Amino acid sequence: MGMVDLSNIASNLMSPGKGILAADESTESADKRLTFYGIETGEEMRRKFRNLFLNTPGIEEYLSGVILYKETLDQTGDDGILFTESLKSRGIIPGIKVDEGLEPLPESPKESITKGLLGLSDRLLLYKTKHETGFTKWRATITIDGTVLPTQQAVHENAKRLAAYAQCVQHAGMVPILEPEVLLEGKHSRVRSREVLTTTLKTLVAALEDHAVDMSAVIIKTSMVLSGNKSGREDDPQEVAEDTVAALMETMTANVPGIVFLSGGQSSDQATRNLAAITQEAHAKNAPWPLTFSYSRALQDEALKVWQGKDENVSAAREAFLTRLRQVREAIA
């Protein structure tokens, strides 16, 4: 598969008016999320959880792609059709999370690095040939603690692994989504958050260039510039937008086919409001790349509250999901 095809997949993922659903919670995270809403856990319940969202009629109006977790690739909806098949039949590209979670950085145990490079090529081949996935995702996390964290080493090591992953994925004929998430956790100011995001993205772009990754076939999934969740400060969407767009304009090459935002710890309303302000700011500043959402909890939250794991609540829960998708789509208009 040539780079032309990869740029094609990337531009399809960035189709105007559409975004990406992150439905790639690991088994453990999915069970944790269900428990949070008082819902039973286990494989069948996780299948129903995926079915609730992936088989909502009409999602193809709002979603260009869905990031899946490996368990979901082999599961079927209530209609007996594999989730990947049913997504493809509606023009939604199935993607797959390929990292294997976080481990502490030996030299700085409060920080993490992402594992999963071992055996990555084999996994990619399997996903591509057996499940026809079009794109993949790898998440790294960057922790802020005053001026102490992140260490330069954590930022560099994570960037290097993201770049090695991206190179491997393009080689396998898929589009990599690179997610260096600057965590919301902490007492830090928005100014500090912007500084860390800028350093993180700058380091990442340099690592991608070192690895000869084709920048026209990667999608960057980034956090917004926000004050830490323990700072006692609620950011104004306009401030978030100015700082976030400034950090991106300073670091991102113009040929990146798209930038998608994670909702990381924000409420559904907050994530929607901030996205709307960022979209407007990006237009005002003539940002060269399309922007959209790649949300998980911010899209699922309201529906899960309504569903409660009960079959009789499915259609009301799906209504809540579609309502939120509509609101998020208005935010990127």
Question: How would you describe what is shown here?
Answer:
The chain has 333 residues and is of the alpha/beta class. It is built from 12 helices and 10 strands. An 8-stranded parallel beta barrel has the order 1-2-3-6-7-8-9-10, surrounded by 6 helices. α7 links the parallel β6 and β7 (175-182). α9 (237-251) packs across α10 (268-284), α10 runs parallel beside α12 and α11 (297-307) runs antiparallel to α12. The longest helix has 21 residues, at 190-210. The mean pLDDT is 97.
Number of strands: 10
Decide which structural class fits the backbone: alpha/beta
- Report, as a whole number of angstroms, the end-to-end distance: 32 Å
Oligomer: single chain
> How many separate helices?
12
Radius of gyration: 19 Å
- Which parts are unreliable, with pLDDT below 50 for 5 consecutive residues or more? none
Largest sheet: 8 strands, parallel, barrel
Major sheet strand order: 1-2-3-6-7-8-9-10
DSSP helix fraction: 40-55%
